[in-house]
Amino acid sequence: MPPADPVRAVLFDVDGPLVDSNYLNTVAWWEAFVQAGHDVQTARIHRAIGMGSYQLLGELLPADRDRAADAEIAAAHAAPYSVYWSRLRPLPGAARLLRACHEQGLRGILANSAGPQELEVLRSALDADDAIDSFTSAGDVDQSKSAPELVQVALQKAGTSPKAVFAGDAVWDAKACARAGVPCVGALSGGTSEPELRSAGAIRVYPGPAELLEALPASLRG
Questions:
Q1: What does the alpha-carbon distance between residue 175 and residue 9 come to, in Å, rounded to a whole number?
Q2: What is the mean pLDDT of residues 94-100?
Q3: Tell me, what's the pLDDT at 1?
Q4: Looking at the DSSP assignment, which residues form a beta bridge with residue 53?
Q5: Which residues, including other chains, have CB under 8 Å from residue 68's CB and lie 6 or more apart?
Q6: Contact indicator for 186, 206 with CB cutoff of 8 Å
Q7: DSSP string, 143-187
């Protein structure tokens, strides 16, 4: 039997596996919901982090709501979240993980659906552009996770469709990867449990980027 093709690219979600932003994002959505007159528990919001804004609204708000207000709620989330931007910090080992992948000849792609300004803030927090080969942003996709499109676009940006693995922290990452045919390695650093990640399709789960780094190359084997 011929050997399996080696992994040549790693697609990284940013919020959760690399940058410690999920709970700040949760609070910002909670404030937007309160402003719009919706009472949504923060635990439910946290479980939806990783979805695109409009999918998140569909997941958390009543089906019979006035959907004309969705755009206003999404915009209202941006203001309180931007207050935290200067406080965003990379998770321990995140930049070293990116550089270690780069040194091993793996293409590193940031697979994210943030807008251009937010993506710039996240990249600045990581401070590892020298190890990032490409990235996605909101303008690259029509549907965000758990649809497979973001994973597919990130794979295209990796080059000539190499074998890849995705590092994510949410069930939406694992579900999107399953639909795209890309193995997903989970990280607990976004706040989702190992059973949840494995049930959604994650092939391995690590506490965070430092542990992914410590276990290289086995941690990112497809």
A1: 19
A2: 98
A3: 39
A4: none
A5: none
A6: yes
A7: S-TTSSHHHHHHHHHTSS---EEEEESSHHHHHHHHHHT--EEEE
